[in-house]
Amino acid sequence: MKGTIGYAAPELFTGRRPTDEVFRDGMNLHNFVNMAVGDQLMVVVDQSALYREEGITKEAGDIGSKWTHEQTEQLISIFRIGIACSKESPALRMDMRQFEV
């Protein structure tokens, strides 16, 4: 986005580091998020970060059920941009100028 640093660590959204146990046997953060975008989105989202953002406790329930359709679509857009910008081959990655707002 115009005026931003142009990078947000994936750990900010997923709560998982690239060295996490889930990333074995060829699985990586890019593929993990790519497989989850859509119906499994909340599986990859760091729920504790969302709870802090919304100012509610975990005991209040699943944050995914409290989010609006618009909020969910915005989160999907963020993940899709991350997926497009993190393809293995730099030649296949999207140009950041395409994301100016």
From TrEMBL:
<keyword id="KW-0418">Kinase</keyword>
<keyword id="KW-0808">Transferase</keyword>
<dbReference type="GO" id="GO:0016301">
    <property type="term" value="F:kinase activity"/>
</dbReference>
<dbReference type="InterPro" id="IPR051564">
    <property type="entry name" value="LRR_receptor-like_kinase"/>
</dbReference>
<protein>
    <submittedName>
        <fullName>Receptor kinase-like protein xa21</fullName>
    </submittedName>
</protein>
<dbReference type="GO" id="GO:0016020">
    <property type="term" value="C:membrane"/>
</dbReference>
<keyword id="KW-0675">Receptor</keyword>
